[in-house]
Specification:
Blueprint lengths: L12 H13 L3 E3 L7 E7 L6 H11 L4 E6 L7 H7 L2 E4 L7 H10 L4 E5 L14 H9 L3 E7 L4 E4 L9 H13 L10 H13 L1
Parallel strand pairs: 1-7, 2-5, 2-6, 3-4, 3-5
Antiparallel strand pairs: 6-7
Amino acid sequence: MHENTTIRSSSGPIRRFIGRTCLRAMGWRVDGEPIDIPKYILVAAPHTTNMDLFYMLFTTMALRIPATWMMKDTAFWWPVGILWRKLGGIPINRRAATNVVQQIVDVFASHDHLALLIAPEGTRKAVKHWKLGFYWMALEAGVPVVPGYINHQTKTIGTGAPVQITGDVEADFEALRAAFQEKVDIYPDYDKKQVERRLQRKSAS
């Protein structure tokens, strides 16, 4: 975690007002309630435009979610990087062979309150499989996943019911599919070979 990243444990009424006002001005409607869980991962999908980050950040403000989020480090150029960190941004170096999952698990362990916002596709392009970093983070940190959906057709954005991650990947993804399909027309899937490689590395260590 970057030392200058702001990690909030709560979000007040002023931020709520700003979030709702900005979304309303852009023509979006917020659907959801504040999430009464101390620690969780907020999975935002689908990720199709650069604006999705702003839509979701305004949504977390509107729902009083004190979100922390990850973005590639090349976007943290000066002076914009100062703003990103104040807003809870964590610069991630995708070029380095660092264990991001373990870093985030350690951050969860060292904080009493943490809401981590992640776009599981990892790109704005259409993808067949979600990246599973968020899943391993949730599993190893022992925190639930909260679906955060962005419906561009109805211009509705919000959150669903938390999904507790059990380690049964297929069953957990069935729960995530049901949660997202209730709100937006996407069918989250994962790469089974990626799961096998992860389990092999775990058994070898």
